[in-house]
Design brief:
Helix content: 40-55%
Number of helices: 6
Strand content: 5-15%
Oligomer: single chain
Low-confidence stretches: none
Strand order of the largest sheet: 1-3-2
Mean pLDDT: 88
Distance between the termini: 92 Å
Largest sheet: 3 strands, antiparallel
Protein backbone atom coordinates (compact mmCIF):
# COMPACT_ATOMS: atom_id res chain seq x y z
CA UNK A 1 0.00 0.00 0.00
CA UNK A 2 1.16 3.54 -0.67
CA UNK A 3 -0.31 5.39 2.28
CA UNK A 4 1.15 8.88 2.65
CA UNK A 5 3.33 8.67 -0.45
CA UNK A 6 2.32 11.85 -2.23
CA UNK A 7 4.82 12.26 -5.08
CA UNK A 8 5.31 10.24 -8.23
CA UNK A 9 8.15 7.73 -7.96
CA UNK A 10 8.44 7.52 -11.76
CA UNK A 11 9.33 3.81 -11.61
CA UNK A 12 12.82 4.51 -10.26
CA UNK A 13 14.77 4.17 -7.05
CA UNK A 14 15.29 7.38 -5.10
CA UNK A 15 18.90 8.02 -6.15
CA UNK A 16 18.08 7.53 -9.84
CA UNK A 17 14.99 9.74 -9.53
CA UNK A 18 16.88 12.55 -7.80
CA UNK A 19 19.68 12.44 -10.36
CA UNK A 20 17.21 12.44 -13.25
CA UNK A 21 15.26 15.41 -11.86
CA UNK A 22 18.49 17.32 -11.20
CA UNK A 23 19.64 16.73 -14.79
CA UNK A 24 16.25 17.71 -16.19
CA UNK A 25 16.19 20.87 -14.06
CA UNK A 26 19.65 21.85 -15.30
CA UNK A 27 18.52 21.31 -18.89
CA UNK A 28 15.40 23.38 -18.27
CA UNK A 29 17.45 26.24 -16.82
CA UNK A 30 19.93 26.07 -19.69
CA UNK A 31 17.50 25.71 -22.62
CA UNK A 32 14.41 27.40 -21.05
CA UNK A 33 12.15 24.60 -22.38
CA UNK A 34 12.39 20.83 -22.74
CA UNK A 35 10.19 18.04 -24.09
CA UNK A 36 9.52 15.08 -21.81
CA UNK A 37 6.68 12.86 -20.65
CA UNK A 38 3.80 14.47 -18.81
CA UNK A 39 4.52 12.61 -15.55
CA UNK A 40 8.16 13.69 -15.57
CA UNK A 41 7.16 17.27 -16.40
CA UNK A 42 4.81 17.39 -13.40
CA UNK A 43 7.49 15.92 -11.14
CA UNK A 44 10.03 18.41 -12.52
CA UNK A 45 7.70 21.32 -11.80
CA UNK A 46 7.52 20.30 -8.13
CA UNK A 47 11.29 19.97 -8.07
CA UNK A 48 12.35 23.18 -9.82
CA UNK A 49 9.84 25.80 -8.63
CA UNK A 50 11.10 25.89 -5.02
CA UNK A 51 14.64 26.27 -6.38
CA UNK A 52 13.61 29.26 -8.49
CA UNK A 53 11.93 30.78 -5.44
CA UNK A 54 15.17 30.33 -3.49
CA UNK A 55 17.14 31.98 -6.29
CA UNK A 56 15.15 35.21 -5.96
CA UNK A 57 17.19 36.13 -2.88
CA UNK A 58 20.87 35.82 -3.73
CA UNK A 59 22.62 34.69 -0.56
CA UNK A 60 25.45 32.23 -0.04
CA UNK A 61 23.14 29.91 1.88
CA UNK A 62 20.55 29.86 -0.91
CA UNK A 63 23.24 29.20 -3.51
CA UNK A 64 24.50 26.23 -1.47
CA UNK A 65 20.99 24.82 -1.00
CA UNK A 66 20.26 25.08 -4.73
CA UNK A 67 23.66 23.61 -5.62
CA UNK A 68 22.98 20.62 -3.34
CA UNK A 69 19.88 19.86 -5.43
CA UNK A 70 21.13 20.72 -8.95
CA UNK A 71 24.79 19.57 -8.64
CA UNK A 72 25.99 21.73 -11.57
CA UNK A 73 27.82 24.98 -10.96
CA UNK A 74 26.94 26.47 -14.37
CA UNK A 75 23.22 25.84 -13.91
CA UNK A 76 23.26 27.45 -10.46
CA UNK A 77 25.12 30.47 -11.82
CA UNK A 78 22.67 30.91 -14.70
CA UNK A 79 19.70 30.45 -12.38
CA UNK A 80 20.85 33.19 -10.03
CA UNK A 81 22.26 35.47 -12.76
CA UNK A 82 19.66 35.29 -15.56
CA UNK A 83 16.47 33.57 -14.45
CA UNK A 84 16.01 35.06 -10.98
CA UNK A 85 15.93 38.75 -12.05
CA UNK A 86 13.42 37.92 -14.77
CA UNK A 87 10.98 36.23 -12.36
CA UNK A 88 11.62 38.57 -9.42
CA UNK A 89 8.14 40.13 -9.45
CA UNK A 90 6.28 36.85 -10.10
CA UNK A 91 4.81 35.26 -6.93
CA UNK A 92 5.11 31.66 -8.15
CA UNK A 93 4.09 29.62 -11.17
CA UNK A 94 7.42 29.94 -12.97
CA UNK A 95 6.86 26.99 -15.31
CA UNK A 96 4.20 26.10 -17.88
CA UNK A 97 3.35 22.58 -19.06
CA UNK A 98 1.91 22.25 -22.57
CA UNK A 99 0.71 18.80 -23.61
CA UNK A 100 1.99 17.68 -27.00
CA UNK A 101 0.14 14.41 -27.64
CA UNK A 102 1.47 10.88 -27.69
CA UNK A 103 4.98 9.66 -28.46
CA UNK A 104 5.22 7.58 -31.61
CA UNK A 105 7.18 4.66 -30.17
CA UNK A 106 5.35 3.75 -26.98
CA UNK A 107 2.29 6.06 -26.97
CA UNK A 108 3.47 7.90 -23.85
CA UNK A 109 1.83 11.26 -23.14
CA UNK A 110 4.37 13.94 -24.05
CA UNK A 111 4.56 17.50 -22.75
CA UNK A 112 6.74 20.56 -23.10
CA UNK A 113 7.74 22.28 -19.87
CA UNK A 114 9.06 25.80 -20.16
CA UNK A 115 9.92 28.82 -18.07
CA UNK A 116 6.98 31.21 -18.33
CA UNK A 117 8.88 34.50 -18.70
CA UNK A 118 11.01 33.26 -21.59
CA UNK A 119 8.20 32.56 -24.07
CA UNK A 120 7.75 35.69 -26.19
CA UNK A 121 4.78 34.25 -28.10
CA UNK A 122 2.61 33.98 -25.00
CA UNK A 123 3.82 37.25 -23.47
CA UNK A 124 3.39 39.31 -26.68
CA UNK A 125 -0.41 39.08 -26.75
CA UNK A 126 -0.87 40.24 -23.17
CA UNK A 127 -0.23 43.80 -21.99
CA UNK A 128 2.56 44.25 -19.49
CA UNK A 129 0.48 46.09 -16.90
CA UNK A 130 -3.19 46.96 -17.08
CA UNK A 131 -3.96 50.37 -15.66
CA UNK A 132 -7.03 50.84 -13.52
CA UNK A 133 -10.05 52.44 -15.12
CA UNK A 134 -11.27 55.58 -13.46
CA UNK A 135 -14.77 56.95 -13.55
CA UNK A 136 -15.32 60.07 -15.60
CA UNK A 137 -18.22 61.28 -13.45
CA UNK A 138 -16.07 63.26 -11.04
CA UNK A 139 -14.37 65.38 -13.70
CA UNK A 140 -15.68 68.81 -14.65
CA UNK A 141 -16.36 69.48 -18.30
CA UNK A 142 -13.84 71.61 -20.13
CA UNK A 143 -14.75 75.13 -21.18
CA UNK A 144 -16.34 75.54 -24.65
CA UNK A 145 -13.45 77.73 -25.81
CA UNK A 146 -11.09 74.74 -25.58
CA UNK A 147 -13.37 72.46 -27.61
CA UNK A 148 -12.89 72.61 -31.37
CA UNK A 149 -15.24 75.12 -32.91
CA UNK A 150 -17.70 73.94 -35.55
CA UNK A 151 -18.60 76.51 -38.19
CA UNK A 152 -22.39 76.27 -38.20
CA UNK A 153 -22.90 79.21 -40.57
CA UNK A 154 -20.80 77.64 -43.31
CA UNK A 155 -22.73 74.39 -43.04
CA UNK A 156 -26.07 76.25 -43.12
CA UNK A 157 -25.08 78.21 -46.23
CA UNK A 158 -24.19 75.04 -48.12
CA UNK A 159 -27.68 73.60 -47.60
Amino acid sequence: MRHGKKFNHLGRKSAHRKSMLANMACSLIEHKRINTTTAKAKALRQFVEPLITKSKTDTTHNRRVVFSKLRQKEAVAELFRDVAPKVADRPGGYTRIIKLGSRLGDNADMAMIELVDYNELYNAGKPAKKSTRRSRRGKKKSSPAVAPAVDTQASNEEE
